[in-house]
Design goal:
The protein has about 325 residues and is mainly α. The protein has helices spanning about 20-30, 45, 55-70, 85-95, 100-105, 110-115, 125, 130-135, 150-170, 210-220, 235-250, 250-265, 270-295, 300-325, and strands spanning about 5-10, 35-40, 80, 145, 175-180. The protein folds into two domains: about 5-185 and about 295-325, Rossmann fold, CATH 3.40.50; about 210-290, Tyrosyl-Transfer RNA Synthetase (Orthogonal Bundle), CATH 1.10.240.10. The radius of gyration is 22 Å and the shape is elongated. The structure holds adenosine-5'-diphosphate and tryptophan (TRP). Adenosine-5'-diphosphate binds near residues 23, 146, 185, 186 and 187.
Length: about 325
């Protein structure tokens, strides 16, 4: 039986962090055996907000290297760079004719970006959802693992697919946002303010590229308080987050010990953070080192990127042929 097509993209706009790992990359890795997977670095998308490309090449290489270091196997999945697949740009052109100014201007992320960068409200920003729909539809993907903030974009991708099918004939299945497994982890920032994010305070975010000492320092600075005064209290958000980090990186015994201490009001957050820091170092270090090795090995990187591009282009060309036939652009 043909496997279902899964696709997702990451914008190379900063260093990947623990939230990206537990919210996205870990799920990609778990999906690679069961599905026909396409994962890519959305470098065209990053031009809508980051027109300066001095850092871009490094970032693209780092995202590829970190994904492989986290366990994505370039032999199993198509791991590629968006700009290596020009078929996406042609599909974007056709879909742009079916996307209306009104609906694009109403998109939440567009309105937010207009507020954040009023001096650069470019057409690419307006048509961001059309490019994202092209990324998805070019492989006729049906499952798209993304966070909640991307749901509106997914709905727009479905609308564009439906509109295309109605006007030109049935080419695209309807893509759906997808949560892998029931456990949706959200990693909060270490200062307790919002989620860990590429653009957040660097001292409150644990990056996969962080050195051991930086990891220790950040965790020791994480927000705590003087501890609970009543047995079995409800944990404040920032304490819950430290327990979440421990649950996903430390052993069950370690986690249970501190949970018990908390419930008995005998917890010492200094000790807990020291333990968490060591376990976090053991978790991040091998990923960081493997990613650095890959990033330095330009031959290997190019091989991975080329292999991904070949796979992605084969699939994209097959879809584009159907698209051209449907639109009537086959002379
Ligand atoms: P960022 O907010 O750091 O720019 P993105 O918006 O590029 O991250 O998200 C890339 C992927 O990582 C998405 O699938 C998103 O759901 C996931 N993700 C990002 N931050 C977190 C977090 N703090 N906890 C869980 N998942 C996250
Ligand atoms: N817009 C997504 C984000 O900001 C990145 C992205 C671009 C994407 N194209 C995609 C995600 C296609 C899933 C599918 O996170």
């Amino acid at each position: 039986m043909k496997k279902e097509v899964v696709l997702s993209g990451i914008r190379p706009t900063g260093f990947l962090h623990l939230g990206n790992y537990f919210g996205a990359m870990r799920n990609y890795v778990r999906m690679q055996d069961e599905y026909d997977c396409y994962f890519f670095v959305a470098n065209w998308h990053s031009l809508t907000t980051h027109p300066d490309t001095k850092e871009l090449q490094n970032s693209v290489h780092r995202v590829i290297a970190e994904n492989v270091a986290c366990g994505l196997d370039p032999d199993k999945v198509a791991l590629y760079v968006q700009s290596d697949v020009p078929e996406i740009a042609e599909l974007y052109l056709y879909l742009n004719m079916l996307a209306y100014k009104g609906e694009l201007e109403k998109t939440t992320t567009f309105k937010e970006k207009v507020r954040l960068q009023p001096e650069n409200v470019n057409a690419g920003l307006l048509t961001y959802p059309v490019l994202m729909a092209s990324d998805i539809l070019i492989h006729r993907a049906v499952k798209v693992p993304v966070g909640k903030d991307q749901e509106q974009h997914l709905e727009m991708a479905r609308n564009f697919a439906e509109r295309f099918n109605y006007r030109y004939g049935n080419v695209f299945p309807a893509p759906q946002a997808f949560n892998f497994g029931s456990e949706l982890v959200k990693i909060m920032s270490l200062d307790g303010n919002g989620k860990m994010s590429k653009s957040e305070n660097q001292m409150s975010t644990l990056y996969l590229a962080d050195e051991d000492d930086a990891i220790r320092k950040k965790i020791m600075k994480a927000k705590t308080d003087s501890g609970p005064t009543e047995p079995n209290s409800v944990k404040p958000d920032y304490i819950e987050n430290i327990f979440t980090l421990m649950r996903i990186t430390s052993s069950a015994d370690t986690y249970n010990k501190f949970e018990e201490d908390f419930n008995k009001c005998s917890i010492r957050y200094g000790d807990m953070k020291k333990q968490l820091a060591e376990d976090m170092v053991s978790f991040i270090k091998p990923i960081r080192e493997k990613a650095a090795d890959i990033q330095q090995d330009k031959n290997l990187l190019h091989k991975i990127i080329q292999q991904g591009a070949d796979k992605a282009r084969a699939s994209a060309a097959a879809t584009l042929q159907e698209v051209r036939k449907a639109v009537g652009m086959n002379y």
